Amino acid sequence: MTDTVRSSAPTGRIMPARDLAQIAIFSALIAALGLAGPLNIGPVPITLQTLGVMLAGAILGPRKGTLAVLLFLVLTAVGLPLLAGARGGIGVFTVSPAAGYLYGWLLGAAVTGYLTARLLPKYPFWPALGATILGGIVAVYLVGIPVMALNLGLPLVTTIGLNLAFIPGDLIKVIVTVLVARQVHKAYPGLIALPKGRREVD
Amino acid sequence: MIGLYSPGTSLIHRAPTLLKLFLLSLCVVLIGSSPNPWIVSGAAAGVVLLFLAARVPVRAAAAQIAPILLILLVTVPIQGLLSGWTVAALMAGRLLVAVALATLFTMTTTVTAVLEAFQKLLRPFRRFIDTDRVGLLVALTIRCIPLVSDIVREVFEARTARGTRGSLLSIAVPVVVRSLYAADALGEALVARGLDD
């Protein structure tokens, strides 16, 4: 009975169907990019899964972007082999050395989305690049590196050293994310609700 | 969508999910905090016995544990030099045992069972989380993975056909735009079925 009362009041809805669909599709996109395998740009193999995480924040914004990442992580945790290399299960979230990066992705999508929402509708290149570096690299490593040090029992400095090799690939992904987001936000305005007090200028 | 689950009828397959989850967390905590090499070796032997009892395919299990070995190949020498080989071996052993146990849990529990267990664990938070919508979202995403995989595959193929190698952008833009179109179509389909009413 309470169910019918609740569902007949659309004003109480937090998430319209359109948003739900975007969250599901981007969650699936992060999975699909992992299944696609690494892509060779010159001699460097690049795993596209983290590109999906950056895109989720930069294209869907903080709320929908973070939820898309969260949904992807839940599906992985319950045992779907969706992480790059067809891995999954609860092990990758707890005892695996790389477990922290997965939580970092959540923070990363939130930070990227939050900052991107403040740069729209103009989305200037350099500030956008800074925003995506802060979310897509700094925030992810901020959670990932301490967890790796903890799970492997290594000093923090050594762990940071081990991670430096991934920075160039990450920077390429950040640039791609910003360039894609620029085109998409121009062609598809309204994907991210602007912060209060700001209006779309056309 | 095929998960990591491998069907079976062993005691481990049939044990209640929440019990398995609880025992797994307990073992991981106990082994993780144990400074005694004998306990860790004993646990490793126990894990091998559990795998034998569950009769999960060796190859599939190895594929989940192999990435850890790669990481250990780099970190064990570093740790051995920094804090002694006993500590390094102990840490590697603990990690392998814990990862193997978690893999065993995932391989002997269906996705549906784990989702149900999660739902039970989330029950105290029901006031804040609309479980119906979460369920719908999970089902939608599982359905969308092959859809978006097809989009990614088609864009990769188009790129190969045009012979334009090297540009990540020439993949990312069409993939994102086509995904957003797919999301629009999906959203309309949900509205048409009365989701927003």
UniProtKB/TrEMBL annotation, chain A:
GO terms for cellular component: plasma membrane. One of its GO terms (molecular function) is biotin transmembrane transporter activity. The keyword Lyase does not apply. It is found in: Cell membrane. It is a multi-pass membrane protein. The chain crosses the membrane at residues 20-37, 43-60, 67-86, 98-117, 129-154, 160-181. It holds the Pfam family BioY. The keyword Membrane applies. Coiled coil: none annotated. InterPro entries: BioY. Keywords: Cell membrane, Membrane, Transmembrane, Transmembrane helix, Transport. Belongs to the BioY family. PANTHER family: BIOTIN TRANSPORTER BIOY, BIOTIN TRANSPORTER BIOY-RELATED. This is Biotin transporter. It comes from Cryobacterium gelidum.
TrEMBL record, chain B:
Coiled coil: none annotated. It is found in: Membrane. CDD domains: EcfT. Keywords: Membrane, Transmembrane, Transmembrane helix. It is a multi-pass membrane protein. InterPro entries: ABC/ECF_trnsptr_transmembrane (IPR003339). The chain crosses the membrane at residues 12-32, 38-56, 68-89, 95-118. One of its GO terms (cellular component) is plasma membrane. This is Energy-coupling factor transporter transmembrane protein EcfT. The lineage of its organism: Bacteria, Bacillati, Actinomycetota, Actinomycetes, Micrococcales.
